[in-house]
Design goal:
The complex is a heterodimer.
Chain A lengths: L1 H20 L1 H8 L5 E8 L2 E7 L4 E2 L1 E11 L4 E2 L3 E10 L4 E2 L7 E2 L7 E7 L9 E9 L2 E9 L1 E2 L6 E5 L5 E8 L7 E11 L12 E7 L14 E4 L4 E7 L5 E9 L5 E3 L13 E5 L1
Parallel strand pairs in A: 3-12
Antiparallel strand pairs in A: 1-2, 2-4, 4-5, 4-9, 6-7, 6-10, 8-9, 10-11, 13-14, 14-15, 15-18, 16-17, 16-19, 17-18, 19-20, 19-21
Chain B lengths: L1 H15 L7 H10 L6 E4 L12 H6 L4 E4 L7 E4 L7 E5 L2 E2 L22 E6 L12 E6 L9 E11 L4 E11 L3 E12 L3 E2 L3 E2 L5 E13 L4 E15 L7 E16 L6 E18 L9 E21 L2 E21 L8 E23 L4 E16 L2 H7 L9 E17 L2 E12 L3 H5 L3 E3 L4 E4 L7 E14 L2 E20 L12 E23 L4 E14 L12 E9 L3 E10 L17 E14 L2 E10 L21 E9 L2
Parallel strand pairs in B: 4-7, 24-27
Antiparallel strand pairs in B: 1-6, 2-3, 4-5, 6-7, 8-9, 8-33, 9-10, 10-13, 11-12, 13-14, 14-15, 15-16, 16-17, 17-18, 18-19, 19-20, 20-21, 21-22, 22-25, 23-24, 25-26, 26-27, 27-28, 28-29, 29-30, 30-31, 31-32, 32-33
Classes of the chains: A mainly beta, B mainly beta.
C-alpha cells in the first residue's frame, strides 16, 4: 500500500535529479537538432560551426545556422555580432551573392541564422570562400575559409540581365516539400548593384506559369503572380501543382510600372520562358 | 452515428408494427404481386435464351429500358431510361459493389457471369430503390436461392463457339442438393480475339479473356432456418478497349456473402433474410499493348465494400409490406503513374480517386395495398444517411486546387418515395406511378481528379460540394390483349433537378496530352428525360408468332442542349417459330438517325442502321440426358455500323456464326 504511493515520488525525484544534471548538455544539443554540420572553421580560440538541413552548401537558397565555440571554455558564445561575405573567385574577377544579415535565431541562445543564395558554382564544387567577421566582448575577429558549394540538381535560382540592363538574381525558397495542391510559393529577388552588393528588389511582380514539359507542356489552374511582401522582403504567390513530377516554373519579371524586364509568355510556339525555375517532386 | 442508429431503430420499431398474424386471403395476394412493380424479371436458368452462353451484357440488352454502352467487346455499361451507372443502383443479390475503374471500364455486371445468377430484376426509376438510391432505376443481379429439395447430384456442360473473333466459351456446372445440405459449383471461361466489324474490318484491341468461378453452399438448421455461403471469383485479363486509349491487364473481383434465411410458418412475417457481405475489386488499366502513346501510364484502382442487409416480407390483411434495412462501407482508391519519356525526369503520379470512403445506412419500406381483386396501390419509401470522407490528405489538397472550400467529409440525407396505382383485369393492365428520388454524387463526380473521358475528350475534376441530384418521375404503362393480338405502351418521364454533368473550366489546361480541356462536375439547373415504347405481338398460329417494339427517347437540359447518350428512335421486330423441340427466330433490329445528338458532350450524329439476326435452337431429350443446341447468324448482311451507345463510334460486330451446345447429365 505504502509502496504504491512512494513509487511515483521516487520516480519523479529520480527523473528530476537526472535531468538537472544534464541540463546544459541537452540544451546545447537541442539547439542544432535536425540540422547537419556543414563545416567547422577553426580560428584560434574559436571554432565556428556551420549547419543546415542537408549538411552541405548547394546552389540556390541556403538557410544557414551557425554558432561559435570558445575553445578554451568549451562553451558556445551567446553574445557575438557576426557578419559574412561569401566570395566566388572567377578566372578574371571575383563576386559575391545575395545574402542576409546574421541574427540570433529566435528562441535560441547560441545559434545565429542567415541565408546565402549561391547563384553558381564550379562543377567540382570549388570557387567559393566565406569570410566571417565577428565581435565578441568588443574584440574583433575575422576568418576566411574556402567552402564547397555543390550544384543543385535543378535550376532553383536564376541570374539574368533585365531589359533595364541590370543584373538580377531570383531564387526559389518555398515550397520545400511540394504537394499536389495549391502550394505557397516564396521567392527571393535581388539586384546585382555591383560585384559585392545584392540588395533586395522591392515592389516588382513575378508572373508565374508552371508547366509540365513532359506532359504536353500543360499548365495548372489558379496560380497567382508573386508579389512583394514588405514585412520579410520576399515575394509570395500561389503555385498549383496537379501531379508529381518535373515542373518548369516559367516566370516573367515586371517592374513596379509593369514593364517586362525578363521572360516571355508560354504559348503554342514558345514552349518556355527564358526566365524559369525548376521543381521536382 | 448515434443519430443514425436512433433514426433507424425508430423506423424499425414502427415498421415491425406490421408483424402480426397472417390472414388467409393475403396469401392469394402475394402471387399477384409477382411482376407488377418490376419492369422485367427473367429467369436465367432455363435454356430459352437465344444463346445458352450469352453474356449478362447480351442478356440485359434484351430489356426495353436497358441499353448497353460499349467501349469494346467486353464489360458493357448498362443504362436504364437513358441514364448511366452513377444514376442507377446496380447490386448483386442486394449487395452493393462498386467498380474500381475511374473510366467505367468495369461495370458491376462484368464481375458476374450468367452461371452465377438466377434472375435479374430491373426496376425503372424509383421502382428500383429497394437496394439503394437512384434516379434512373435499379438492376439487381440475383443469385440462385438455396435448394434443399433432395434432388441429388446434377451436372451440365456448355460449349460455345463463334466465328467472329474466334470466340470460345466453356461452362461447367455441378450441384448436389440434399434435404439439409446443398453445394453447387460452376465455372465459365470465355476468350475472344479481335472481332471483325462489317466488311471484315478488324477492330484492334477488342480481345478479351475471362473466367469466373463460383461456389455456393447452404445448410438447413430447421424447417424455418437456413444459412447460405456464396463466393464468386471473377478474373479478366488482357481485355482490350478499342474505344479507349488504354486497355485492362487485370480486372479481378472476389464477391462473398453469408446469408441467413428465416421463413416462419403461419405468421404474418413471411421471410426474414439477413446477409453479411464483403467484396474486393482490383482493376489495372495499362497501355502496354498500344504501340504509340504520348506517354506510358498505369492506372490501377481498388474498391472494397463491406455491407449488410436485412429484409423482411410481411403480409397482413390486404397489405404486403417489404422492408429492407441495409448499410455498406466502401473504400475507393485509384491512382495514375505516368512514366516520363525523359529519363532524367521523375515519373509523375497522382491520385485519381484519393481513397474515398463512403458509408451508407438506410431503410426501405414498401407497401402493396390491394384495394380490390383488380387494383392495388403500391407505395415505397427509402431513407438513408450517406457520408463521404476523403481519407488521403492529398485528396483534400489536390481538389483544393479547383475548389475554394473542400471539406474532408460530407454528410447527406437521401430520400426516395414512389407510389403507383395498378389495375389488372383479364386482358387489360394499367399502371400509373409517381416518384421522387435523390442520389448522392458518385466517387468520380464528387472526388475524381483528372479523369479522362475519351467520349468528349475532356479531363474531369470532381466537385465535393455538389448538391444531391433529385428527380421527379411519372410513369405510365398499359397493356391490352385482343385474342391473339396484344398491344402495350410504356412510358416514363423524369424531371431531374441539379442534374450532375461536367462544366467547362475555361483556361484550365488538360493533363491528358491531346485532350480538349478540363471539365469540373457541376449541375444543370434541371434536365428532362422522356421515353416511350410501343410493344405489340401477334400470334399467327400455335407455332408462329410475331412481335415488335418501337421506342422513342428524348433528353434535354436546362441549357436547352441535348443530353448525351439518349437513344434515338429504335425498332425491333421478330418472327418466332416454336415447337417443344425446335425454335427459330428471325430478328430485325435498328435505330433511326441520331439527330438529337449532344455535340457539347462529344457526340456526333450516328447514322441509322438495321441488322438482321437468325437464331435457331434444337432440344434433344434422351435416356442419357438432355442436349440443347443453339446456333444462328448475327448481323446476316454483315452491316458495318455503330449505334449511339458505342463509345467513340467503334463499329459493332459484323456477320457472326455462332453455335452453343449444352448437355445436361441425367
Amino acid at each position: 500500500m505504502k509502496l504504491k504511493y512512494l513509487l511515483p515520488i521516487v520516480c519523479f525525484t529520480l527523473f528530476f535529479s537526472c535531468s538537472t544534471d544534464d541540463n546544459d548538455d541537452t540544451m546545447l544539443i537541442n539547439e542544432v537538432e535536425n540540422l547537419q554540420l556543414i563545416k567547422t572553421i577553426e580560428n584560434g580560440d574559436q571554432s565556428i560551426e556551420l549547419y543546415n538541413e542537408k549538411g552541405m552548401f548547394e546552389t540556390g537558397y541556403n538557410m544557414i545556422s551557425l554558432r561559435i565555440k570558445d575553445n578554451n571554455t568549451n562553451t558556445y558564445v551567446e553574445d557575438a555580432t557576426i557578419s559574412w561575405m561569401p566570395v566566388m573567385q572567377m578566372p578574371t574577377m571575383q563576386h559575391s551573392c545575395p545574402k542576409s544579415e546574421i541574427t540570433k535565431a529566435i528562441g535560441k541562445d547560441t545559434v545565429y541564422q542567415g541565408f546565402i543564395i549561391y547563384q553558381m558554382t564550379f562543377e567540382d564544387g570549388s570557387g567559393w570562400s566565406l569570410t566571417l567577421d565577428y565581435t565578441i566582448n568588443d574584440v574583433d575577429y575575422s576568418v576566411t575559409e574556402t567552402i564547397n558549394v555543390m550544384q543543385y540538381e535543378n535550376q532553383n535560382t536564376a541570374s539574368f540581365m533585365g531589359s533595364d540592363d541590370s543584373r538580377y538574381i531570383v531564387a526559389l525558397i518555398a515550397p520545400k516539400a511540394p504537394s499536389i495542391a495549391i502550394n505557397n510559393m516564396k521567392v527571393g529577388l535581388f539586384k546585382m548593384e555591383n560585384m559585392m552588393t545584392f540588395p533586395v528588389v522591392e515592389d516588382y511582380t513575378i508572373a508565374l506559369d508552371p508547366r509540365m514539359p513532359g506532359m504536353g507542356n500543360h499548365s495548372s489552374p489558379n496560380n497567382t503572380d508573386l508579389t512583394y511582401n514588405s514585412a520579410d522582403h520576399f515575394y509570395y504567390g500561389n503555385l498549383s501543382l496537379t501531379m508529381t513530377g518535373y515542373w518548369k516554373l516559367n516566370l516573367k519579371l515586371l517592374d513596379a510600372s509593369g514593364t517586362v524586364l525578363k521572360g516571355e509568355d508560354v504559348t503554342e510556339n514558345n514552349e518556355s520562358s527564358s526566365l524559369y525555375l525548376d521543381l521536382e517532386f | 452515428m448515434k443519430m443514425q442508429l436512433l433514426v433507424f431503430l425508430c423506423l424499425l420499431v414502427s415498421a415491425t408494427g406490421f408483424t402480426q398474424d397472417q390472414q388467409e386471403e393475403a396469401k392469394k395476394d402475394t402471387t399477384k404481386l409477382e411482376e407488377v412493380l418490376i419492369v422485367s424479371r427473367r429467369k436465367f436458368s432455363n435454356h430459352r435464351q437465344e444463346k445458352t452462353l450469352s453474356s449478362i451484357d447480351d442478356y440485359l440488352e434484351k430489356s426495353n429500358n436497358v441499353t448497353m454502352i460499349k467501349r469494346g467487346n467486353y464489360a458493357w455499361e448498362p443504362t436504364v431510361n437513358n441514364m448511366v451507372s452513377q444514376r442507377l443502383v446496380v447490386t448483386i443479390d442486394g449487395m452493393q459493389i462498386f467498380g474500381a475503374c475511374t473510366d467505367k471500364m468495369d461495370p458491376i455486371t462484368s464481375y458476374v457471369d450468367v452461371s452465377n445468377l438466377d434472375k435479374v430484376t430491373i426496376g425503372s426509376g424509383q421502382e428500383g430503390t429497394e437496394n439503394g438510391h437512384c434516379v434512373g432505376g435499379g438492376i439487381d443481379l440475383q443469385l440462385p436461392t438455396s435448394k434443399f429439395n433432395g434432388s441429388g447430384l446434377k451436372s451440365s456442360i456448355d460449349l460455345g463457339y463463334e466465328t467472329n473473333g474466334n470466340y470460345k466459351a466453356t461452362g461447367l456446372d455441378l450441384e448436389y442438393a440434399g434435404n439439409k445440405f446443398f453445394i453447387s459449383a460452376d465455372g465459365i471461361f470465355r476468350t475472344s480475339d479481335n472481332y471483325d466489324a462489317g466488311n471484315n474490318k478488324e477492330v484492334l484491341y477488342s480481345q478479351f479473356e475471362k473466367y469466373n468461378l463460383s461456389l455456393q453452399t447452404g445448410y438447413k438448421f430447421s424447417e424455418t432456418q437456413s444459412l447460405d455461403a456464396n463466393i464468386i471469383y471473377d478474373k479478366a485479363t488482357d481485355v482490350g478497349y478499342p474505344a479507349l486509349p488504354m486497355d485492362v491487364s487485370l480486372a479481378e473481383a472476389l464477391i462473398s456473402s453469408l446469408t441467413h434465411h428465416y421463413t416462419p410458418e403461419n405468421k404474418a412475417l413471411k421471410t426474414l433474410e439477413t446477409k453479411l457481405y464483403f467484396n474486393t475489386i482490383t482493376h489495372i488499366m495499362d497501355d502496354t499493348k498500344r504501340p504509340i502513346v504520348p506517354i506510358r501510364m498505369d492506372m490501377p484502382g481498388w474498391s472494397d465494400t463491406y455491407g449488410f442487409y436485412s429484409k423482411a416480407d410481411v403480409i397482413k390483411d390486404k397489405h404486403h409490406v417489404s422492408l429492407n434495412l441495409n448499410g455498406f462501407y466502401n473504400k475507393s482508391l485509384a491512382e495514375m503513374t505516368m512514366f516520363s519519356n525523359n529519363p532524367n525526369e521523375p515519373d509523375m503520379f497522382m491520385y485519381t480517386w484519393p481513397d474515398i470512403r463512403t458509408r451508407y445506412t438506410g431503410i426501405f419500406a414498401k407497401d402493396a395495398y390491394y384495394l380490390n381483386d383488380n387494383s392495388s396501390l403500391e407505395s415505397s419509401v427509402r431513407f438513408g444517411l450517406h457520408n463521404n470522407r476523403i481519407a488521403k490528405e492529398e485528396g483534400v489538397e489536390s481538389l483544393g486546387i479547383f475548389h475554394d472550400n473542400v471539406e474532408d467529409t460530407k454528410d447527406r440525407t437521401l430520400l426516395s418515395v414512389a407510389s403507383a396505382y395498378k389495375y389488372n383485369k383479364n386482358n387489360y393492365k394499367l399502371s400509373f406511378g409517381l416518384g421522387y428520388g435523390e442520389r448522392a454524387p458518385s466517387v468520380s463526380e464528387g472526388y475524381g481528379f483528372f479523369i479522362f473521358n475519351s467520349f468528349d475528350n475532356y479531363d474531369y475534376i470532381g466537385n465535393p460540394n455538389l448538391k444531391d441530384e433529385k428527380a421527379l418521375e411519372a410513369n405510365f404503362s398499359f397493356n391490352q390483349k385482343f385474342n391473339d393480338f396484344e398491344i402495350g405502351l410504356q412510358s416514363s418521364y423524369f424531371y431531374i433537378m441539379d442534374y450532375i454533368i461536367g462544366d467547362l473550366a475555361p483556361n484550365v489546361s488538360s493533363m491528358t496530352i491531346g485532350a480538349n480541356g478540363v471539365r469540373v462536375y457541376n449541375a444543370l439547373n434541371h434536365a428532362s428525360i422522356f421515353d416511350i415504347y410501343l410493344n405489340s405481338s401477334y400470334k399467327i398460329s400455335e407455332r408462329l408468332s410475331v412481335n415488335g417494339t418501337i421506342g422513342y427517347n428524348y433528353g434535354k437540359g436546362s441549357n436547352n442542349k441535348n443530353l448525351p447518350l439518349i437513344k434515338p428512335f429504335s425498332y425491333f421486330a421478330e418472327f418466332n417459330y416454336n415447337t417443344s423441340k425446335f425454335n427459330a427466330a428471325l430478328q430485325l433490329e435498328g435505330n433511326g438517325n441520331q439527330s438529337n445528338f449532344s455535340s457539347l458532350y462529344g457526340e456526333n450524329e450516328t447514322a441509322s442502321y438495321a441488322i438482321l439476326n437468325l437464331n435457331l435452337g434444337h432440344a434433344f431429350y434422351g435416356k442419357n440426358g438432355k442436349t440443347i443446341l443453339k446456333y444462328g447468324i448475327e448481323n446476316i448482311l454483315d452491316a458495318n455500323y455503330s449505334t449511339y451507345a458505342d463509345w467513340n463510334n467503334i463499329p459493332r460486330q459484323g456477320r457472326n456464326f455462332y453455335v452453343n451446345l449444352s448437355y445436361v447429365f441425367p
